[in-house]
Amino acid sequence: MIAFNDVSYFFSKEIGVKDVSFEISHDEFAFLIGPTGSGKTTIMRLIYMDLMPDEGFVTVGGISSNKIKKRKIPMVRRKIGMVFQDYHLLSDRNIFENVALPLHMVGIRRDEVRERVMNMLNELDIEEKEKKKPFELSGGEQQRVCIARALVKEPEVILADEPTGNLDPVAAHDLIKLLENVNNEGTAVFMVSHNYNLIKNRGHRILEIQMGEIQNQ
User: Fold this and answer.
1) With 0-12 CB in 10 A as exposed, 13-18 as middle and 19+ as buried, what is 96?
2) What pTM did the predictor assign?
3) Angle at CA 98, nearest 5°, toward 158 and 33?
4) Per-residue model confidence as pLDDT tens digits over 114-164
């Protein structure tokens, strides 16, 4: 599903990543851990093709960064659902509208949008929140909305960048269980975390990054 092949990316004044190689299979749940500034978010941006490698190449769903034309990048991003630490929800729109947004962006019919969004809200136990604004929800509920928004376009992989960073321990545990359920239904999950105690002993592969280099995988 995802493959890094000797990938390096250099920022002018900060660490990027250097000679990174690893693979995430189509049905895998894997964690990426490391301290702040170690390159975790850079890895995520390279997968999303928001950044392009200076050396090597990234492959997502069979499409390689060294061959893709810029106008084709949205095709790669349709395969990816993004979940962020700070939610990135639109404060002036209700929950239904936030989750529906990616479907409108790819031209899904309005009746199908309604069905898919409500099915997803129901699956994540937040269907009664459809008319609420994000600020009316708890942090855990907002993160469920983010997952609903990521899943509604039926991606092949979920990228979760520190999704538990703003949650209390109980909500953080519940969120990982939710992502595990998503993975059990056939979607790959690649999650960034700095909280080793939260993710250890869950039976998933853990990749460690230090100073832009993968140490263990």
Assistant:
1) buried
2) 0.91
3) 30
4) 999 999 999 899 999 999 999 999 999 999 999 999 999 899 999 999 888
How many Cβ atoms are within 10 Å of 180's Cβ, its own excluded? 15
Q: Look up residue 159 and give its DSSP letter.
A: E
Q: Residue 157: phi, psi to the nearest 5?
A: -145, 145
Number of H helices, E strands in the chain: 7, 10
Q: Please check whether residue 134 is in contact with residue 166, taking contact to mean a CB–CB distance below 8 angstroms.
A: no
Tokens read off for 200: 């250890």
The partner residues of 24 in beta bridges, in order of sequence, read 2
Q: Which of 44, 82, 11, 93 is nearest to 192 (CA)?
A: 44
* Cα 86 to Cα 7, 148, 160, 188, distances in angstroms: 27, 15, 11, 22
Phi, psi of 63 (to 5 degrees): -110, 125
Alpha helix ranges (H) inside the chain: 40-47, 73-77, 95-105, 110-123, 139-151, 169-184, 196-199
**Is the separation of the CB atoms in 114 and 99 below 8 Å?**
no
Q: Which two tokens stand for residue 125?
A: 């136990």
Euclidean distance between CA atoms 172 and 160, whole angstroms: 13
Q: How far apart are CA 73 and CA 37, in angstroms?
A: 26
